[in-house]
Write a structure and sequence with these properties.
Oligomer: single chain
Number of strands: 10
Order of helices and strands: HHHHEEEHEEHEEEHEEHH
Low-confidence stretches: 1-13, 232-246, 261-272
Structural class: alpha+beta
Mean pLDDT: 75
Number of helices: 9
Distance between the termini: 78 Å
Strand content: 5-15%
């Protein structure tokens, strides 16, 4: 392998790693023969052919890495950014999908606590009779407010004010020492509870609430109905609580997550998504660091250009063809295109075939890239799953035509 320009030496040590001098000589000889040798001279140096071969490998690497990002980026996101993903299989851990499902579960029903990174906390507000609005402190992200119409099937299994219960108690109707409602069907208890709920809805108020923003980042919650005095606690009493079905709860409970500022919980934003990261992500002094040491997108997932010895035979064939097309274009543009392809000679001029070389070289490279794109589209994960599902469907259909076994019991 010739040692020419310093840049080519670096490229040779990198993209052509693992190639022997005999292998490179054989490839260069094939390219020159495809371009006209030995009938015509090919004015390309070994350094130029090295550049064409390296560019072909880089182009192939770019398409392969784009295919990898299309299929595996969702599995790379959130992994340490110093991992080299080149030629690495990344298992399908559904971490990307779980970030959405976890956040949704946290907001809807609190089930995110199973895999959540945040602690679900319980808060409470003491209620005052006649006061409807209460303040939830800043920094608390509401998850669920425990303010809802109480169940009318009480501890005794029925409405204590129901006529049947009063009659059973006053007239001594009993069975085995218990009032008759203990031996009545459960359906009677359900109907009694439904009647009590309907009576409360018509004559009173369903429990509900409304949350709105406060002036200092806090939240204001309005409770319906307005908390009222437990009339059974005595005249003028300010005690709250359920008493005879007349009072409202004396305390309102709610679930919440801690938040830090308007930007949300610190566990999900900025450098705090990776608390152990203390390295620098910006090599230029004086500029602020970016990132937090985790893969955030296609631009910071480490994917190095492949080297020749890492390619299989089909990939090497593509690289050789692309290098030849690249060399054809280079020969037309950089060599035979000099003086616009007109080479002056005594008493005449010689027209070189530079235009044909440029046109054919570009067409060959475009065709090779299109073929590679089509191949990778057919080999993406979605297509593979669709093909496998279709094959399984055909297998099941084929097996269904066979005779069924006869089982003797």
């Amino acid at each position: 392998m010739s040692q020419g320009f310093g840049y080519c030496e670096i490229m040779s040590e990198d993209c052509l790693s693992g190639m022997t001098e005999q292998q490179t000589s054989r490839i260069f000889k094939r390219i020159r023969r495809k371009l006209g040798e030995p009938v015509m001279g090919v004015e390309l140096e070994d350094e130029q052919l090295e550049e064409c071969l390296c560019e072909a490998i880089e182009e192939y690497s770019s398409y392969i890495h784009q295919w990898g990002l299309e299929n595996r980026l969702s599995q790379m996101l959130g992994l340490p950014a110093d991992i080299d993903f080149t030629l690495k299989f990344v298992s399908n851990n559904f971490g990307f999908e779980r970030t959405f499902s976890r956040a949704y579960a946290e907001q809807v029903n609190g089930l995110g606590g199973v895999n959540s990174m945040r602690e679900l906390k319980l808060g409470h507000i003491p209620l005052t009779a006649g006061t409807q609005d209460y303040t939830i402190p800043m920094g608390q992200e509401l998850n669920e407010v425990l303010w809802f119409t109480p169940n009318f099937i009480n501890l005794f299994g029925l409405d204590p004010f129901a006529n049947s219960n009063i009659a059973f108690s006053e007239f001594g109707a009993s069975f085995a020492g218990h009032t008759l409602y203990h031996v009545m069907p459960v359906y009677d208890t359900i109907l009694t509870a439904q009647a009590a709920e309907l009576r409360n809805k018509v004559r009173g108020s369903e429990y509900s609430y409304r949350v709105r923003g406060g002036s200092d980042g806090s939240k204001v919650i309005s409770l319906y109905p307005i908390p009222r005095v437990n009339t059974t606690a005595g005249v003028g009493s300010s005690n709250m609580g359920i008493g005879g079905g007349a009072g409202t709860p004396g305390t309102m409970f709610y679930y919440y997550y801690d938040t830090i500022g308007i930007g949300g919980n610190e566990s999900f934003s900025g450098n705090t998504a990776n608390p152990g990261f203390s390295g620098s992500t910006n090599p230029i002094d004086g500029l602020p660091d970016q990132g937090n040491g985790l893969v955030s997108g296609p631009s910071d997932a480490i994917l190095y250009n492949l080297r020749y010895n890492e390619l299989n035979d089909p990939a090497k064939t593509w690289v050789k063809k692309y290098a030849q097309a690249n060399a054809k274009e280079l020969l037309g543009i950089g060599i035979r295109g000099k003086f616009s392809g007109e080479l002056p000679i005594p008493d005449a001029s010689l027209t070189m075939n530079h235009a044909d070389l440029i046109t054919n070289g570009k067409a060959d490279m475009d065709k090779l890239k299109e073929e590679l794109r089509d191949l990778l589209d057919r080999l993406n994960y979605k297509s593979l799953l669709e093909n496998n599902a279709l094959m399984q469907e055909y297998v099941n259909k084929t097996l269904s035509y066979g005779p069924l076994p006869i089982y003797l019991g």
